[in-house]
Amino acid sequence: MKNRYLIYIVSDSLGETAESVVRAAASQFGQMEIEVEQFSFVRNTDKIDQVILSAKMNHAFVVFTLVMSKLSRYFAVKAREAGVPYVDLMSGMVTGLSTLFKKKPLGEPGLSHQLDEDYFRKIEAIEFAVRYDDGKDPRGILRADIVLIGVSRTSKTPLSQFLAIKKYKVANVPIVPEVRPPEELFQMDPDRCFGLKISPERLNSIRMERLAALGLEAAANYANMTRIHEELHYFDRVVKKIGCKAIDVSQRAVEETANEILKRMAGAV
């Protein structure tokens, strides 16, 4: 069974930037089973103590971004004492820029998230992606900037969240032979819809890993090649009926797929 790695993201603000960095870095190691847990608005030593205790108990790796130097130093000291592995994403950058600008940093949390229109658009897009994830409500399809369709385990949800951080409202819909696709898929502009295509072999490998992680039998129908071919043939028919583009995600990281979608949205491809 593949190892599962727990990573804590600790921030004095939302922490979504740190999570993006962690996921981008983790993608360089191939298909790793990582679980990311967010600890946002950590602005006192009591919360830091709680996080470090939890990280030690759960054998978590910690990535933190604390702009207040006092808290940053406290976290590093306490993590070392507890034997908790960590990376400080913020201090090195702030120190370097302080030398460049020849001035001391303000040390005020949340300055990168001033409550401006751009920030609100990002939050709205993230909330939209959660609300219309996995076909929960087909009404979101006609309201979305981007709609993703694909069979199970084609990274629809993480891709939706990644695009949401870039301020795109994304809905995603699972394609299952036994379930009729929502009519909204055939009413929307097909240029805003993207099918996530995957090779049968790659999908089989991903699903086998998923079954193993859940402690289920590898012989389950979910990872059966006959069933997989059936699902993918049905997916191809739905894509053709919608008239949308298909992107092969077999060997692409989420970030690569997102960039490909945005290129196609801009008409660059």
Which helices and strands appear, and what pairs or packs with what?
Elements: E1 4-11, H1 16-26, E2 33-39, H2 45-58, E3 61-65, H3 69-82, E4 86-88, H4 91-101, H5 117-131, E5 146-150, H6 156-165, E6 170-174, E7 193-197, H7 200-213, H8 225-242, E8 245-248, H9 254-265
Parallel strand pairs: 1-2, 1-3, 3-4, 5-6, 5-7, 7-8
Helix pairs in contact: 2-3, 5-6, 6-9, 7-8
Walk me through this protein's architecture.
The structure is a single chain. By secondary structure, the protein is an alpha/beta fold. The protein contains nine helices and eight strands. A four-stranded parallel β-sheet has the order 2-1-3-4, sandwiched between helices. The longest helix has 18 residues, at 225-242. The mean pLDDT is 90.
Strand content: 15-25%
Query: What is the CATH architecture term of the largest domain?
Result: 3-Layer(aba) Sandwich
Main sheet properties: 4 strands, parallel
Task: Report low-confidence residues grouped into runs of 5 or more.
Answer: none
Treating each run of at least 4 consecutive H or I residues as one helix, how many helices?
9
Q: Would you list the SSEs in sequence order as H and E?
A: EHEHEHEHHEHEEHHEH
| CATH topology label of the largest domain | Rossmann fold
The average pLDDT score comes to: 90
CATH class of the largest domain: Alpha Beta
Number of extended strands: 8
- Quickly count the domains: 2
Span of the ends, CA to CA = 39 Å
Strand order of the largest sheet: 2-1-3-4
Gyration radius (Cα, Å) is: 21 Å
